[in-house]
Amino acid sequence: MSEGSGPWQPEGAVQAGEEDLWRAARSDAHGRSAAAIVRPRQRWSLNFVHPGLERLFGQVEYTQNRRFITVACSVMAAVVACFFALDPILAPAYALDTIAAARAWVGLPSLVMLVVGVRLWPRSAVWVPWAATFGLLYMLVQAVLLLKLGVDAFQYLSYGVWQGLIAIFFLMGLPFRWAMVIGACSCLAYGGAALLIHVGLDAFMTYFAVDAVIVYSFCAIAVFRYERASRRQFVAQAQANFAYDQQLLAQADRRRWLEVFADFLGHELKNAMARLSSAIDLASLKGQEDRAQAHRDSAQQSLAFMRRLLTQAADATSLEAALTRSDRKRVPLSDLVVERMAGHQQDSPEVCFDLAIEPAIVLEGNEDALVQLLDKLVNNAIEHGSPGLPVQVQLRRLAQAGWCRLAVRDLGDPLPTDTQRLFEPFYTDKGNKAALGASNLGLGLFVAETIARHHGGHLSAEPILDRESGVEGAVFWVDLPLVRVDQLPEAGTQR
Fold first, then answer.
1. Do the Cβ atoms of 381 and 418 come closer than 8 Å?
2. Does pTM top 0.85 for this prediction?
3. Which of 302, 330, 335, 397 is deepest in the core (most CB within 10 A)?
4. For residues 86-113, average pLDDT
5. Which DSSP letter does residue 326 get?
6. Ramachandran category for residue 287: left, alpha or beta (phi over 0 → left; psi -120 to 50 → alpha)
7. CA-wise closest residue to 253 among 454, 95, 53
8. Using one digit for the tens of pLDDT, what is the confidence trace for 401-457?
9. What percent of the chain has pLDDT over 90?
10. Which has the minimum average pLDDT: 59-73, 198-212, 301-315?
11. How far apart are CA 425 and CA 415, in angstroms?
């Protein structure tokens, strides 16, 4: 693998901006179903659903085949040049000058331009239209020559059509769908020219129609099978790269978590232990009997804080491993949200909940973890919302097929400027660190974001302003796929 190529890149693929394509595809894949990224559009389609991956596949194929295309076009140019010597033997005598002029002014220049183009254009998005233009031009010249030279040149020019079809399908590196269209247009143009000059039916069938069906079908089937095999190999590599990329992200998250965890424990536990030690020392001093109970209460508060800190930190650190090991099943998310919000209304009767739940939304995941995700968002809204103002909970399908959005909105405390810090462990918007004695240790949104990520989703937040009341607030939403993020098609399967 080339230096700096990243886990999504195959060996030797970092050329002429191709690294940007890999980076874009990897970025687009974040939080999306991998099945939606790599599967074909339909059973017999060779196009991927994800447009970035489709461009990526074309670029990889072109990069790997550029040397072959250069050699093939150079050989074709040499063969065409050799026909200057063979034309007097094979072509009608009256047509020699016209055929030589067409070969000198169109055939050879087209092939030279193909060789120049494949060396100049490293991007497949430029090369494919370039090659298609000159390939189609070469084929249309055959039809124009037939109209000019008449019936006697029909058999000779037909051989040029077959040579052009073979070059378009096999030697120019064109994608299957491009080769199909150019080949079909070329055959139709040449067949139409033959009919215009009134080629006899027997000659038309013998020297063109039957051979056109055979050659075109053979080329199309062969190229289709080759490209389908290449795409299957590409899918298998994309699956492996996707899994590797996710593994690297998980490892980076674990390292970041351990660093933050060690720093926080070193700071907070040190403070709590110092306060505990001070309270014990003061309670043991003579003349402090009247304040001994206050010192004991302070020591108990410090012990309770350390116990709560260690418990919540242990739960957070084990969450990711538990989500990885847990089995996924179909979860009726709409029913789950309605049922859980009824429990929140019973637990917090003073809070007004405004629900907008779209029915029959089902996804695959861990039901307990999704309940925990909802609870974290709702509890956060209750904690920071203003009394008397409603907490809005919405669940709906997105316009993007296969996705839903769960949103929780409250009016009260404004969000900090850097909303991404809200999802860091041990961060609270009432100070950079959780305070001694506080029930909120800054792990709720971190846990919610971890659950969302393990379900293929992404948790976000943004500040809002209610126009009627003029009160600031916040909305937290999580976009979740309605299919499993790890439900990848096996290599070689079509969907």
1. no
2. no
3. 302
4. 89
5. S
6. left
7. 454
8. 778 999 999 888 777 776 776 776 666 665 444 444 444 556 778 778 888 888 888
9. 20
10. 301-315
11. 17
- The three-point CA angle 273-277-279 to 5° equals 115
Tokens of 466: 């209610």
Distance CA 138, CA 161 (A): 9
Question: How confident is the model at residue 7, as a pLDDT?
Answer: 34
Report yes or no: 384 and 474 within 8 Å, Cβ to Cβ: yes
Query: Which token pair is 232?
Result: 């299957």
Distance from C-alpha of 304 to C-alpha of 288, rounded to nearest angstrom: 23
Q: Return the structure tokens found at 143.
A: 């039809």
Neighbours of 106 (CB within 10 A): 18
Burial 18-55 (b: 16+ CB within 10 A, else e): bbebbeebbeebebbbbbbbbbbeeeeebbbbbebbbb
CA dihedral 158, 160, 163, 169 (to 10 degrees): -80
Check whether 115 has a pLDDT greater than 80: yes
Beta bridge partners of 410: 474
Burial class from Cβ neighbours inside 10 Å (0-12, 13-18, 19+) for residue 457 reads: buried
Which phi and psi angles does 410 have, rounded to 5°?
-135, 160
Amino acid letter, 373:
L
For residues 137 and 112, give the distance between their C-alpha atoms in angstroms, rounded to a whole number: 13
